[in-house]
Write a structure and sequence with these properties.
Layout lengths: L10 E2 L37 E8 L11 E9 L3 E12 L5 E6 L5 E4 L1 H6 L7 E2 L2 E8 L7 E11 L18 E2 L5 E5 L3 E5 L5 E4 L9 E3 L19 E11 L5 E7 L8 H5 L14 E6 L13 E11 L2 E5 L10 E4 L2 E9 L5 E5 L3 H11 L13 E3 L5 E3 L10 E6 L2 E4 L6 H4 L17 E4 L5 E5 L1 H6 L3 E5 L20 E3 L5 E3 H7 L34 H4 L15 E5 L5 E6 H6 L3 E5 L23 E2 L3 E6 L29 E6 L4 E6 L8 E7 L7 E6 L14 E7 L4 E8 L6 E10 L4 E6 L2 E7 H6 L3 E5 L21 E2 L1 H9 L19 H9 L2 E2 L2
Helix pairs in contact: 10-11
C-alpha cells in the first residue's frame, strides 16, 4: 500500500511519501535507557527494511596480556538479509582498544576507536551480506572495556517493493551514470550533492529526519532489487544538519559530514564539488542526478540522470519536466553546471517541483549546517573542549594519565593538550615540553628508584613511576643511574639483561612467549604485584638467547628497540600505541617505532580492491561497479585471445580489475559490461577459486552492438554453471584503455537447497551451501536444522571455538567473572560465569581432539 502525503500538487519524494516496507514495529524493550530508543516504534522506511532488538551486553572485558587481544568475538547473522547495520548502546574502549566489524560476505572491515565511534553516533557503516563479525580488540593491560549491541538493521531480500512511477513522464528516460558529486542518504533513501570544499551537501528538508550515513560510489543493486552498499571507505557519518520541511517551495536541507573510518572527508577523497548558482533561469535545459527507485532492479536506488526542461519559477518554487521518483528527494537540479535547486515533490503529470537554492532561508540553513562540525575552532559538542589548537576532544582526556601531545587522535584529528591553558594536560605532560607544539615527552632513558635504567620511556611516565628522566633520545648505554643497576637477587629471583631482579616465575612465563621483552612490557602491570612498579623487563640479550628468539638478533643487546607506534589497519584506519607484532597479528601494517597517526598516511596508494587476482572483489548476480582508472597491470599475463578471435580483445598490458563469483545454483550464466557511460572494455572469464590454478574458459573484446550499451562493450554468454562453482572475472581495456563501468551477471539458476550453517559456533538455519561458503562457515548438509549441539565446540572449555583450550579461554572466564547476561565465556551454558567454567577450562587444557 502506498503511503502518499497530499501536499499541493504532488507528493514528497523521500521519507514521507515512499512505500513503507513491512518491517519490525517494536514495542519498548525493558531497558528504558537504550541509546537508540528513538528507533523503537518506527519502521525503517524505504529502502532500509527492518529493525530487530538484540540487547547484547558483553560485560566488563579485561586484557592482562602483553599484546592486543580480541577479548570479545561474536557473529551477528540475519539469514534473510541482503545487508546489515549495527546500533551500539554504551561502549567503553580504553585508549588503544578498538571495535572491529567485518562483513562475512565480502570481508569489508570497519575499525572504530572511542573517537570514531562517537563520530558515527555509536553505529556502524552498512555491510553487504547477512552476517557480520564483531570483535573488541583490547589494548595491553586494559581492564575496563565493554560493549552493548542494541539493534541490528537489515533488508529482507524477500520483501523488496517499489513505487508507482510518480514523477516519471511517459517512459522512464533516466540513464545510469557515475559521479563523485552525488550521494545516497541512508537510512531513509534520499539523494544529496557536494557543494563546497568543506564537504557539505544540499538535500531536501524532509530528508533530514533520521539520516545518518552518506554513501558515494554506490554499486548496482541486485536482480531482485535489494540494494548493495559501497565499501566502508565510501561511507560517511552525518554530523550536523539544518533545514525546513514546509511543503512545495519551502522544503530544503543541508548537511555536514564527518570523516570516514579512514579519516577522510568526501572532498579529501574525491576532490570534486558543484557550486550553487546565484541566479535561477526561468527556462532552458536542466538535469537531475539521484538515487530513485526503478522497475529495472539493478538500477533501482543507484545513480541515474535525466535531462529535461525548466517550466518556470514561482517565488521559491522551481517547476521542471525532468524524470525523478521516490528516492530522488534531495537530488540537485543542475543548469549550466551549477546547482539551481533541489528536487522535492512529484506529480502524475509531466511537471515536478523543487526549491530554489537562492532562497534566503535555504542559504541560511546551508551556512548553519556547514558550521556545525567539531574540530578546527567553533563550538564543540557537549562533553568536549577545544585543545591547544581549537580541535574538539573529550573533556575527560585532561589529566587522564596519558600525555596528549599529538600521540592520540579524536575523530581522526591529533589532539594536543600540552600547553599552559590545560596546565600541561593536567600534569600528564612534562612541563619542559608543555608548549602545545607537538612531540614532547620522550622517549628516552629513565633511572628507576632502585637505580636500574629503562629505555624508551616518556618523561611523564618516568616521573609517574618515581623515576628520573634522563632526557629525550638518551639511552641506558650512555647514562649512569646511581652507580649501575641491580645487585644480587634474593632466592627465587633472577636478574634480567640490565640487572633488575624479577621472580623466577616471570622468567619462566615470559621467555619465548612470542613477545620481545625489550623493556616494552612491565611485569607489575601483568599481575606481578611484588615486581617493581613501572619497571620494564629486558630479555633481549645473549644471556637469554634474544628472549628465546622472540627478539630480532640485530637488537639483541639488552636495551631499547621493539617499541610501539602507529598501525595501519586493514580498512586504512590508523591506531596508535601498537607493537609491531600486535599490528601484524591483527592484519595491519606497522609504521615503525615512535610513529603516530598524526604523521603517517594509511592507504591512498595505487590500485585498490580488485587490482590483483588475490584481491578480487566478490561479485553478485546483477550489477557490479568497477574502475580500472587507478589500477595497474596485475601481472597475470596476457589472456589467450584464441578463445575470442576477431573480437578485438587486444589486451596488451591493460590495467585490470578482478571479481570472484560463486554460482548460486545450477543454470546458465552470462557476463557483460553494457554501460552507456563506460569505455572500450575487454573481458576474460576463468574457472577456479585459487589464483595459481585458474583455467581460462572464455573471453570477449567487442560484442555485437546492443541498444543502451557503449559502442564497444564486452559480453560472454551461455556458460553452464553448477551451484557452488567459483569463477574469476578479469576486466581490462582495448589497447590498454582504462575507466569505470558495470559488470552485470545474469542467468537462470535453480533454487539452492538449504540447511544449517555454522558461523563461529553459532548455528544459522536456511543457508545454501554456496552462501555458507561465502560467509566462511561450515555447511551442515541439505535439510539440516539447528539445535544446541549442531555447532558446539568439539571440547568443553573451548569458549572461543578455536579448537584449543588455552590462556585465551582462561582470561575470558576471568574477565567475565559473575557475568549473567550475554556472556561469551559461559563455558557450561548455565547462565553465569563462575568457578564451574574455570574448572572446565583447566580440566580440558590443550588441543581439542
Amino acid at each position: 500500500m502506498l503511503n502518499h502525503r497530499s501536499i499541493a500538487c504532488g507528493a514528497a519524494l523521500g521519507l514521507t511519501s515512499i512505500l513503507a516496507v513491512a518491517g519490525s514495529t517494536l514495542g519498548a524493550p525493558a531497558d528504558a535507557g537504550l541509546m537508540h530508543k528513538g528507533l523503537v516504534g518506527e519502521t525503517l522506511d524505504w529502502p532500509t527494511g527492518e529493525l530487530d532488538f538484540l540487547g547484547i551486553n558483553s560485560g566488563s572485558l579485561a586484557n592482562l596480556t602483553k599484546g592486543h587481544v580480541a577479548v570479545y568475538d561474536k557473529t551477528i547473522s540475519v539469514p534473510v538479509a541482503g545487508w546489515i547495520r549495527l546500533y551500539f548502546g554504551e561502549v567503553n574502549l580504553e585508549k588503544g582498544s578498538v571495535l572491529r566489524v567485518t562483513s562475512l560476505f565480502d570481508d569489508e572491515v570497519q575499525v572504530l576507536d572511542a573517537g570514531t565511534l562517537d563520530r558515527w553516533d555509536n553505529t556502524t557503516a552498512y555491510f553487504n551480506g547477512s552476517a557480520v563479525r564483531v570483535e573488541l580488540i583490547a589494548a595491553p593491560g586494559s581492564r575496563d572495556n565493554s560493549l552493548e549491541i542494541e539493534y541490528v538493521a537489515f533488508q529482507d531480500v524477500a520483501t523488496i517493493e517499489r513505487g508507482d512511477g510518480c514523477g516519471i513522464c511517459g517512459a522512464d528516460d533516466r540513464q545510469p551514470t557515475s559521479s563523485d558529486l552525488f550521494a545516497r542518504l541512508y537510512p531513509y533513501g534520499c539523494s544529496a550533492t557536494l557543494y563546497n570544499e568543506e564537504s557539505c551537501l544540499v538535500t531536501a528538508g524532509h530528508c533530514l529526519s533520521g539520516q545518518t550515513v552518506v554513501q558515494f560510489r554506490v554499486p548496482n543493486s541486485n536482480s531482485n532489487c535489494y540494494t548493495n552498499n559501497p565499501g566502508v571507505a565510501d561511507q560517511f557519518p552525518i554530523t550536523a544538519s539544518d533545514g525546513v520541511d514546509g511543503g512545495v517551495g519551502v522544503d530544503f536541507g543541508a548537511i555536514q559530514v564527518g570523516a570516514n573510518s579512514s579519516g577522510q572527508l568526501p572532498y579529501d577523497r574525491y576532490g570534486v564539488y558543484m557550486e550553487p548558482a546565484t541566479s535561477i533561469p526561468g527556462s532552458g535545459s536542466a538535469s537531475v542526478s539521484g538515487y530513485g527507485v526503478d522497475d529495472e532492479c539493478v538500477y533501482s536506488q543507484t545513480l541515474q540522470t535525466h535531462t529535461g526542461s525548466i517550466s518556470g519559477v514561482g517565488g521559491t518554487t522551481l517547476y521542471y519536466d525532468i524524470d525523478g521518483t521516490y528516492g530522488n528527494s534531495g537530488s540537485s537540479i543542475v543548469a549550466n553546471n551549477q546547482i539551481i535547486g533541489v528536487m522535492t515533490h512529484c506529480s502524475y503529470s509531466c511537471e515536478n517541483y523543487g526549491t530554489t537554492i537562492t532562497s534566503s532561508a535555504f542559504q541560511a540553513a546551508m551556512a548553519s549546517a556547514c558550521a556545525g562540525g567539531g574540530g578546527g575552532g567553533g563550538e564543540c559538542p557537549t562533553g568536549e573542549i577545544e585543545d591547544c589548537f581549537g580541535n574538539c576532544c573529550p573533556e575527560s582526556w585532561v589529566a587522564d594519565g596519558y600525555c596528549d601531545d599529538g600521540t592520540y587522535e579524536h575523530n581522526g584529528v591529533a589532539i594536543y593538550l600540552n600547553c599552559d591553558e590545560f596546565n600541561c594536560d593536567g600534569g600528564d605532560c612534562d612541563p619542559s615540553q608543555c608548549d602545545g607544539g607537538g612531540g614532547g615527552g620522550g622517549p628516552g632513558a629513565c633511572c628507576q628508584a632502585d637505580d636500574t635504567c629503562s629505555d624508551g620511556w616518556s618523561s611523564d611516565d618516568c616521573s609517574a613511576f618515581g623515576g628520573t628522566y634522563q632526557g629525550d633520545d638518551t639511552s641506558c648505554s650512555s647514562v649512569e643511574c646511581g652507580g649501575g643497576g641491580g645487585g644480587p637477587c634474593d632466592a627465587g629471583w633472577s636478574a634480567d639483561c640490565v640487572g633488575t631482579c624479577f621472580p623466577d616465575e616471570v622468567f619462566d612465563a615470559w621467555i619465548g612467549d612470542g613477545f620481545c621483552d625489550d623493556g616494552s612490557y612491565i611485569p607489575y602491570d601483568y599481575g606481578c604485584t611484588e615486581c617493581p612498579p613501572g619497571v620494564g623487563m629486558y630479555l633481549n640479550c645473549d644471556e637469554f638467547d634474544c628472549d628465546s628468539g622472540d627478539c630480532d638478533p640485530s637488537q639483541c643487546e639488552g636495551g631499547g628497540g621493539g617499541g610501539t607506534g602507529a598501525c595501519c589497519q586493514a580498512d586504512d584506519t590508523c591506531s596508535d600505541g601498537w607493537s609491531s607484532d600486535d599490528c601484524s597479528a591483527f592484519g595491519g601494517t606497522y609504521q615503525g617505532d615512535d610513529t603516530s597517526c598524526s604523521s603517517v598516511e594509511c592507504g591512498g596508494g595505487g590500485g585498490g580492491d580488485g587490482d590483483a587476482c588475490g584481491d578480487a572483489v566478490v561479485a553478485l548476480v546483477g550489477g557490479n561497479a568497477f574502475s580500472t582508472s587507478g589500477n595497474s597491470d596485475s601481472g597475470f599475463g596476457s589472456p589467450d585471445d584464441s578463445q575470442c578471435a576477431d573480437t578485438f580483445l587486444d589486451w596488451g598490458a591493460s590495467p585490470d580489475a578482478w571479481f570472484v563469483w560463486t554460482a548460486p545454483g545450477d543454470g546458465t550464466a552470462s557476463f557483460n559490461t553494457c554501460d552507456t557511460s563506460s569505455y572500450d572494455t575487454s573481458l576474460v572469464l576463468y574457472e577456479g577459486d585459487a589464483c595459481e590454478s585458474l583455467v581460462q574458459i572464455a573471453c570477449n573484446g567487442d560484442a555485437a552492438d546492443d541498444t543502451g550499451c557503449q559502442a564497444y562493450h564486452s559480453r560472454i554468454e551461455g556458460i553452464a554453471v553448477l551451484e557452488g562453482d567459483v569463477y574469476h572475472i578479469r576486466l581490462g581495456g582495448w589497447g590498454g584503455e582504462s575507466g569505470s563501468g558495470t559488470l552485470t551477471i545474469e542467468g537462470d539458476f535453480t533454487e539452492p537447497q538449504t540447511g544449517a550453517c555454522c558461523l563461529d559456533n553459532d548455528c544459522q538455519p536456511g543457508y545454501s551451501e554456496a552462501d555458507c561458503d561465502y560467509l566462511k562457515g561450515e555447511f551442515q548438509g541439505i535439510g539440516t536444522s539447528c539445535n544446541e549441539d549442531t555447532c558446539a565446540s568439539p571440547c568443553d572449555g573451548d569458549a572461543n571455538g578455536d579448537d584449543l583450550v588455552n590462556v585465551t579461554d582462561l582470561l575470558g572466564v576471568i574477565g567475565e567473572w559473575q557475568c549473567s547476561s550475554g556472556c561469551s565465556f559461559d563455558v557450561n551454558g548455565d547462565g553465569v560465569v563462575n568457578v564451574t567454567d574455570l574448572l572446565a577450562v583447566i580440566g580440558n587444557w590443550g588441543p581439542c581432539s
